[in-house]
Amino acid sequence: MTDLSALREEIDAIDQQIVTLYEKRMAVCEEVAEYKIQTGKKVFDKEREDAKIATLTAMTHSSFNGHAVEELFRQIMSISRKRQYQLLTREGVIGRLSFTQVEEIERENVRVVFQGVEGAYAQAAMKAYFGDKVSSFAVAKWRDALEAIAEGMADFAVLPIENSTAGFVSEIYDLLMKYDDYIVGEQIIRVEHVLLGLPGAKLSGIRTVYSHEQGLMQCEEFLNGHRDWQQEAVDNTAMAAKKVAKEQDASQAAIASAFAGEVFGLEILKEHISTSAGNSTRFIIVSNQRIFQKDANKISICFEAPHRSGALYNILSHFIYNNLNMSKIESRPIPERNWEYRFFVDVEGNLNDSAVKNALRGITEEAANVKILGNYYGGNV
Ligand SMILES: C=C(O[C@@H]1C=C(C(=O)O)C=C[C@H]1O)C(=O)O
Prior knowledge:
Chorismate Mutase Domain, subunit A; amino-acid biosynthesis; Preph_deHydtase; six-stranded mixed sheet; five-stranded mixed sheet; 41% helix; aromatic amino acid biosynthesis; cytoplasm; Bifunctional chorismate mutase/prephenate dehydratase; binds the ligand C=C(O[C@@H]1C=C(C(=O)O)C=C[C@H]1O)C(=O)O
């Protein structure tokens, strides 16, 4: 048996050759980048890469090695592309992004739409973000809010995207892909649910509780203590309060804010019913304009990764190679395409940063249906 140290010496010699050859290959790729800068040719050439993989895997002597060589070379070529994007950015030939920088997002004398009725948490988020000098109106569905800005009826919409207890609001993600609307800001507010009933109603007399399904989820522990209550989801927590006030049935209660209770003349039957004391919701401010505030520090993008092993890794590696911090990733099924997903990613940065331009250029060329959802000032990046 050959001695381990002798084998390792042999490996060391081979690895040194690999590194030398890798650097030699990269130097040629830099020349390719030069050619592409001069001619305007795209960095990513899928046909060339696929042909190369076919040739190289055919040289191997086992299927194990065939897979390994494919993986290795997909990686090498992906690294080569990232280097080329860097050089293109340095030469200033990365195309302009279709977003316009503004000093500030306008917060006065604008028209804002939110979903629900007066007393909704979205209204509280709107007031926290815009203050009081706006004209606002409420719509029944989230979709209606996005439509209102797409059609120019409102300048901004305020929509809940994530709750600290119940997680992300999947429907908003799906809607953001349907409409030509963009995120320009975010606002996090504390969500302190209370149980509301008619004046004089008793906790012991409650039979049905209404709320938004997120409200029900966020108070799951409290509701587990009242398993005989029927839980009914409606479109919004404040709408639940409105319904209880309107129907005048003392066996009905709503989970909503104390403010919604005041608006509809209801009484607080129980306070502090959220499972998590710090229960908070992150709202996004959405516009039909592709604008970003000068000091924006968070970018949200969406893309579809090809249905191939390692595809998501290769796309995300554009962030790694550009030193960008990814703060969040979510996935949603693509409608009509079973078991295929689109990914929603938040990264720290500003569209003016060359590292950001570089990463986005790579992702735009390599992933399908990329949408930059927005660049905005994020409170908790
Ligand atoms: C180097 C090139 O750019 C990219 C990288 C490749 C590689 O590293 O082999 C191949 C094709 C392109 O996607 C090229 O176009 O030849």
